[in-house]
Amino acid sequence: MTQYNNLINGQWTAADSYSTNTNPSDLTDVIGEYAQGNAADVQAAIAAATAAFPAWSTSGIQARHDALDKIGNEILARKEELGDLLAREEGKTRPEAIGEVGRAGQIFKFFAGECLRLAGETLPSVRPGIGIEITREPIGVVGLITPWNFPIAIPAWKIAPALAFGNCVVLKPADLVPGSAWALADIIHRSGIPAGVFNLVMGPGRVIGDALVRHPDVAAVSFTGSVGVGRGIAQACVETGKKVQLEMGGKNPQIVLDDADLAQAVELSAQSSFYSTGQRCTASSRLIVTDKIYPAFIEALQARMAKIRVGDARAAGTDMGPVVSRAQLEQDLSYVEIAKAEGAVLAHGGSAVACHTGSGNNGYFMAPTLFVDTEAGMRINREEVFGPVASVIRVKDYEQALAVANDTPFGLAAGIATTSLKYASHFKRHSQAGMVMVNLPTAGVDYHVPFGGRKGSSYGPREQGRYAQEFYTTVKTAYTLA
To answer: Per-residue pLDDT averaged across 366-379, rounded?
Structure first.
């Protein structure tokens, strides 16, 4: 069995123990054994990053551009291979996984360009004979803690801007999916970036994450994951004066109005709710449908769901892969029982199923699941399930739909299906979400624009695009006497 080590100060470093990485489509398929680091490994990685920071933060922008562009090029050249690995360890279908890898490559190439676009301001002082320069500088050592559902794209959209703006990085990937992060670390390692600038420490969050967040030499922490863990990280960062950036999920609404194109509304709802096995923080799990179109929408969506082929993530013809782990499958199924107990009507799915494509059934497969005639206050409509489970809420009109859509502690993404410019325009302005989609799936965003939400979904500056500089840099104002 191949063992994969941590990357600390430019060296692949062995660990005291290793964890088995298993394919959720086929539990007999072991991908490899990945290092389980400890607090001492985190200390060593932070020390290496701290030592590397002075030279890297003042290095020429051409060198940073060339390294990030090289990383992006290799990712894109290997997207089929890396996509297959991603599908194998995480469970999203191979086409989706290849698409995610492509996005990661483009992210690095975008931020390679940002290295060359660092800008500031020159302003006159109110005092004669004095000039003012406003510039951005890197903040130091950045701790990055990433989730399992996008095991290469989310690390990429945190690592690339951190490096582009001159910071040094310690990455702690999700323990369920270390393979994609290790492959990305290997590419970064061979890009020409100096030792210590980028470090990878794999292992359990309660050990690695905690040591990273609490270390005094870490200037900032960017985290994507659960609400509970995110709030704990925020509190720890405030206590130690660190910058913090959190992405913590959603309970995203998809409104379908009476005037919507039915076929379009059904397709975008199916994609938003069930593709990537519903394991996306931008997935639509609340379908809010107005009275007149409700019966036809339910019938058409059920028919569409019946065509979704559940199976091995890497097999041809699979539409929806497995749930990522046994624990996640058990959580998803527990919400099915909760919804039934609260009076929701199960219209489709609701159980673990056999594999429809591929060579076997030894995996965490669940049928796409739909509840109808639900109430907005039910737990199925308040709490994030993070699986292939959607519920439908029937409403009278657009005004009630908007009120229900906004009645959530989350605010990441929201969608509306309508042919009315009036309602589309009103929804874009009045939806309490960070990202709004009109006649498009809520899941699916570009790599060059800001990503993030409101309320309980996000905290701190936006990720991705030019807005990433708000988190990964600090502003300096300098005065000069002429």
So the answer is: 98
